[in-house]
Request: fold
Amino acid sequence: LCVRSIRTCPGTSYCKLGKQDALGIGMELDKLYHAIGLPGKFNMAVSGCHLSCSESWVRDIGLIGLKEGWQVVIGGNVGANPRIAQEVASGLDNAGILKAVEKIVQCYQASAKKGERLGKTIERIGLEPFKAAL
Reply:
């Protein structure tokens, strides 16, 4: 019940389609959050463009690089009950992304029941507490 390794695509480092530095942000998030204990399993993904090669739409927190900054989506999940993430912010720079992820993780930690994934927490309490935290 912790943050798993951050999944990233090549972003601007190795891909012509990349709009943002997915590897850089992914590595920074991994340093900050990898193996941090949380109420439930927690996956993050960083995609450098809208193609979402790292499957950001089906992770607890997904970051998607756009020309004008980062888009943040939360609550995605795969498995028996798949769930597409919902957008909570857009147009953020790198510093804004780090703050947004911190706020989302704090809100999840305060609101989730033991073993509950972020998507289930959102279904139970709604998306508004997470938007308000940002």
About this structure: Helices lie at 11-14, 22-33, 94-111, 118-125, 128-133. The two ends are 24 Å apart (CA to CA). The chain has a mean pLDDT of 96. The longest helix spans residues 94-111.
